[in-house]
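Hello again,

I reread your note about wanting to compare the complex against the isolated chains. To keep things tidy I'm splitting this into two emails, and this first one only covers the full assembly. Below are the input lines as submitted, including protein chains and any nucleic acid or small-molecule components. They are followed by the predicted structure of everything together. The single-chain runs will come separately.
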Amino acid sequence: MDRDVAGKITTAVKKASHTSELLPWALVTPALMWTLLFFVLPFLGMGLMSLTQQSGGGLTLSNYTQFFTNPSYFQAMVNSLEVTGIVTVISVLLAYPFAWILAERVPEKWQRLALLLAVLPFWTSYVVRSYSWLLVLAQKGVINSILTGTGLINEPLQLANTRTATVIGFVHFFVMLLTLTIFANLKQLSPSYRKAAADLGANPFQVFLHVVLPLTIPGVMVGAFLTFVLAIGDYITPQILGGNNEVLMPQLIMMQIGRRGDFPLASALALILMAVVTVAYIACARWLKIERT
Amino acid sequence: MRNAVKYFATGYAAAIYLFIFLPVIVLIIFSLQSTNFPIPPFTGPSLRWYGAVLGDARLTSAFANSLLVAGISSLVSVALGFLSAWGFARFALPGSALMRGLITLPLTVSYLIIGMGLLVVFNTAGIPKSLVSAGIGHVVINLPLCFAIIYSQMGDHQINIERAARDLGAREWQVLFMVSVPVMWPAIFASLFLSMTFSWDEFVISFLLTRFDTTMPVEIWNLLRSGLNPKTNAVGSLVFGISVFLAIIFEIILLRRRPT
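Full-complex prediction:
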């Protein structure tokens, strides 16, 4: 009888441990398979594709050498880096004071509403947002109408289809994003730091410069990195606002697919772009690590 | 001095708000234009272009397609994300960190590259462009997000509640659906909502992977080829209105949950 019960318990325990061995794998396998099948495999496929040529033939590095030898391809990367760099710097400079005002100057009970309003246009569709700027910047658009209407200028300014338009469109989006991240950063800061600095005789300006600013820099860097990554991979904003006068990397890649159907070259260019982003990521991660220690 | 700072702060904030709202205001005002061009002078208000949008079968079907793709792909993302997060948080698996890294990896890659990779593979495998292909792409971008959000919210107190349920005789699937899912509801809801907005707004993957039946952002893109057009303003304003409506509902639901 005793032995019977003991036996039953052992089989029950075995069964339980058996299911708990299989169960976790059953839980995680679908997500893993999805990632392998629809992310890793396509990525490898693209890598392989980048080593072939549209005209056929064996494996070759010619798509990559083409990037470095064809000046117009290389120029697209230079343009991309320049535009993204300018956008990141302007967005941070505009967003920081704004986030600071929202966090420090707006009364506590209105802060949530003020922040919600500041990111409301986030909810416009991303294609529509760029189009809206086109309405503002077009030759007969709102800005030119106001300027010529008030007699400030005689000839309308060429704003649409320029680098300036691309930068404005990007900055608009990233000011909202950075305001959100910097605001969160400022709010996380414990007030005791500020109090301690003030007690030690610092004036408000010194408190900001020597306490608040250094403590929020890592958060700002993360936001700036996010801006860089999202902006450099974006096709819509430069295509709608910048036009084809100046081509950025994503536009160059899409041109290979659309106009010429040259998948191998497009794959190579996409991987080069990704490599640049990865380098930026490593630099940013390193910098943050140094900061923290 | 104090006053100067105050005035400067107010002026600066007002200027940024103006910059942020300028394009949206212009978009909405000129969607009410009665003539053919959405440029000054304003000739409305008229609902003519809203009528044109609602009468455009391509736009209304793109709207339905977008809802369908966003709904199904987000449900799949949340389901896969939740199950895997639960698996990793509750059981010690060999190579767990590596596998978690793999699942979150797509977050670091731009949509353009994800879309291109899928296009290359689908092309080679002879899979035609369709809404299903685009939906698969949307799960690729949203699954890591859902996983990261839900995994980060699985704390110790939830483990204790689950243990209590097991001690009281609940089976594993009962623990999952009657304890873990309800306890994790805020994180599940947040990731579902985020996935839906990202899928709803996603352009480049849908652009590369669909052909005739397509989603709203791609159809709006097609409209842009005809230049500035009040119809595009009307579509844009409608999409904006719907998104803001959803965002407000999201805020209300989350705010209501917070104090309890």
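For quick reference: Chain B has a mean pLDDT of 86.

B.
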